[in-house]
Amino acid sequence: MDEDLALVPLVDLRAQYEGIRREIDSAVLRVLGSGTYVQGGEVRLFEQEFAAYCGATHAVAVNSGTSALHLALLAAGIGPGDEVITVAHTFVATVAAILYSGATPVLVDIDPHTFAIDVARIEDAITARTRAIIPVHLYGHPADMDPILEIARRRGLTVIEDAAQAHGSWYGERQIGSIGDMTCFSYYPSKNLGAYGEGGAVTTNRDDYDRSLRMLRDWGCERKYHHQLKGYNYRLDEIQATILRVKLRYLEGWNQSRRDHAAEYTLALENTSVVTPSEKPYARHVYYVYAVRSEARNELQRYLKTRGIDSGIHYPIPVHMQEAYSDLGYGKGDFPHSELAAEQVLSLPLYPELRPAQRRRVMTAVQEFGSPAGLPAAAGVEVAWRRS
C-alpha cells in the first residue's frame, strides 16, 4: 500500500516485533522446550538484569503494573485507616491499588507543564493518617523527586513511585527505579518496555521490602506450602520474562529514538496551534506518549483522522470525575489543572519504528490544522494554563 494512503497508527507493536522476530522466537521456543513456565530461571535473570538497568539493588517481577503497586503498598505496611497521596490525572490503576490495600486515596492536582504531581500541594494534603506518597511519572516525564523525598523524610512517609510509563527515564543523575523506597513498573505491551501480555515489577534498594514483595506475590511463602503471610498469585510467567529479557537489550536505543522523534515534532510544531510537551532541566523524558495540548482537542483528533492519522487521549476523565470513584468525595472544580488537561491532551503517534514519511504526515497535518485550508476556528489557540 502507498505509504501516503496507509493509516499512521498510534502504536505499531507488530513493527517492533518484526525487527526482533528471530531473537523473540528463539527465546520463546527455548522456554517452551524447558518445561518450566512460571517464575523460573528466566524470571530470576530478568529481575537481575532489570535491577541492574535501573541501578537498584532488587527487582521483583509480578504479573502486572497494578499488582506491583498493590504489593508495594502492602510491603510498606499500608492498610485500612491509612491515607496515600497521589494525583487526579493518571490511569485509574494508581488509585485502584490504594483501595485494594484498604487505604484511602487522597488526590492532589498536577503541575500543568509536566503532568506530574504539583509538589507545592503535597504538604496541605498530609494528615495524621498519611502514610505514603505515590508520584506518577506520567507520559515518561519524571516527577520532581527531590522535594517529594524531602517532604517524605521530614514527615515519615514512604515514597512509592508509579513508573508504569517511565522505563529508562532519569531524574538528574539518578535513573527512575533507584530513587524512592519502591518503584512500580508496568510491562503492558504498548509500554517502552512491554511484554507480549501482562507483566510488572517493583524495584527497591531495601532488603526487607524485597523479601516481603517476594512472599506476597507467591501466596505469602518463601518455602512451598509454608505460608507466612496472606499473599497473592501475582507471579510473572517465564515466556513474558524471556521476551522482556530480549527487549531490555534494545530499550536504550528505542528510548533514544523516541526522544529524537519527539525533538523533531517539537521543532516542527513550535508555531502551530498546539502546545508541545516540556522537559524540565532535571528530567530525561522518554515519551511513552507525545501528548500535545489544544483547546480544540476533539476537532484536532477528528481532523487527523481525516488525514489517516490515529491518535489517543491519555486520559479523557480525571480519576475524581470517574463514576466508579465518585465515592472518594471530590467533584468538578476540585483539581482544575487535571480537569483542563483531560479536556486538552492528545497523544500523537510516536514510537521507535515510526518512519520518516509517517512523521512528516503527522507534522504536516498538525501544521495544517487551523490554517485556512484546515479548520479556521482552531487558529491561534492560546492554552488556558499558560495564563494561570
Summarize the structure.
The chain is of the alpha/beta class and 388 residues long.
Largest sheet: 7 strands, mixed
- In terms of DSSP E residues, the strand content is 5-15%
The spatial strand order of the largest sheet comes to 1-9-8-5-4-2-3
Question: For the residues shown, what is the average pLDDT?
Answer: 94
| Helix vs. strand class | alpha/beta
Low-confidence stretches: 372-388
Task: Please characterize this protein's 3D structure.
With 388 residues, the chain is of the alpha/beta class. It is built from 13 helices and 14 strands. It has helices spanning 13-19, 21-34, 41-54, 65-75, 93-100, 122-125, 145-155, 207-217, 238-248, 251-268, 297-306, 336-344, 356-368; strands spanning 58-62, 83-87, 104-108, 130-133, 158-162, 170-171, 174-175, 182-186, 200-204, 221-223, 226-227, 283-284, 290-293, 345-348. It has a 7-stranded mixed sheet, with helices on both faces. Strands 7-6-12 form a 3-stranded antiparallel sheet, with no helix packed on it. A two-stranded antiparallel ribbon has the order 10-11. A hairpin with a 2-residue loop joins strand 6 and strand 7. The radius of gyration is 21 Å and the shape is globular. The model is unreliable at 372-388 (pLDDT under 50).
Q: Key features?
A:
single chain, alpha/beta, 14 strands, 7-stranded mixed beta sheet, 388 residues, 3-stranded antiparallel beta sheet
